[in-house]
Amino acid sequence: MDYLSNIIFAVILIAGVGYFVRNIKKLIRNIKLGHDIDTSDNKNQRWKSMARIALGQSKMVVRPVAGFLHIIVYVGFVIINIEVLEIIIDGLFGTHRVGLKVLPESVYGFLIGCFEVLAVLVLVSVIVFWLRRNVINLKRFLSSEMKGWPKNDGNIILYFEVVLMCLFLVMNATDITFQNMNAGNVVSQFISPLFGDNSDTLHLIERSAWWLHIIGILIFLNYLYFSKHLHILLAFPNTYYGKLTPKGQFNNLEAVTNEVKLMMDPNADPFAAPAEDDNAEEPAKFGASDVMDLNRIQLLNAYTCTECGRCTSECPANQTGKKLSPRKIMMDTRDRLAEVGKNIDANGGAFKDDGKQLLGDYITKEELWACTTCNACVEACPVSIDPLSIIIEMRRYLVMEESAAPMELNNMMTNIENNGAPWPYNQQDRLNWVNE
Ligand code: SF4
Ligand code: SF4
After folding, report:
1. Which of 60, 72, 236, 372 has the fewest C-beta atoms lying within 10 Å of its C-beta?
2. What is the CA 211 to chain-centroid distance, rounded?
3. pLDDT in tens, 150-187
4. Does residue 198 sit in the same domain as residue 327?
5. Is residue 166 a part of any domain in this protein?
6. Where is the 4Fe-4S ferredoxin-type domain (predicted)?
7. Which is the closest atom of ligand 2 to the Cα of 306?
């Protein structure tokens, strides 16, 4: 019978982890639909950014209350899940609290005591988060892109955390051996009397809480793929691959730069073969109209977005009532990428044209041209996401492929072309103001 429960445990564990790995493979395949981009530079600086921003949560504390509560939930949740190691070993080998066999009772008690305190802190933080989302009605959680699934997703994960923390405490409170040890039951000793003293009943509740706890963790793990909470994992690679160049520095299109250089060089032979070191191939498309035109870091950004809305709340275009939310830009990119991924799955591994694209079907021209390119969204993002780079790529597409810039911009570009300045004055007239 014991063996049977070990086998059932192993099957559940393999199924849970296996499904998660399968989905992560899909996620990596989707990210690889983007252009490759060289991120092999400045490895030291990248590791430091990751340690500071993802592990140290340095950008979260800019808003101290939310930042502090987030750190408690993050640290508490990660540390408490060290307990999962013990559960897995116990489940696979039929032991009970194997930690007690390898650690002195005082050390084990100290660890579990810390976990119990953290569990209570996580519960308190989660309740505050729930109130912020559902009762206090913070403006950044009320935007149109946060209706429906994004709102439910935010709440579901909070309920998950409440259930998991409660199961952990109930498991400890009803474990007679653990309670008799009287070390580490700093919180559970107060809950324990609620369950009476019938040893059979206590054993049944303890076993139920134990099984539900591990099953809940596996469900949580698999839920991540469908949720914005994927950032728990992706914040690490995303901050590693984050942009290191100064904010506001745009990449030049090498093919265009070479073309302009050629035009400016009076000795250039336009029919000459390209130089050997000239490896700038003309891109198949300038800019981006769909997710496959973006680079892999931009697609990783989209999957990492936590939907926190810090970018949107800092965005001057959004603040002045324009139809632009950098958070929505990231959510739209992710949703379109997920749609493309499903299309590939449904068509035997190849994308079948579905007549849709990111531009127009998800993100409108109006949103793109509302951006002032101020970089406030990039600065505000706690996980190094760069919504502006996607906006710029899509604008590039509009200008270079569709000649669809707004009239004001077209006028300015014509002026630059004709007059060498953005204003509609002839170069000879530039100094007229001196005469006045
Ligand atoms: S760069 Fe654009 S999207 Fe980002 S905050 Fe500024 S105006 Fe908003
Ligand atoms: S882009 Fe960054 S700041 Fe904006 S919602 Fe996503 S995680 Fe938050």
Report:
1. 372
2. 30
3. 999 999 999 999 999 999 999 999 999 899 988 889 99
4. no
5. yes
6. 295-327, 360-393
7. 7
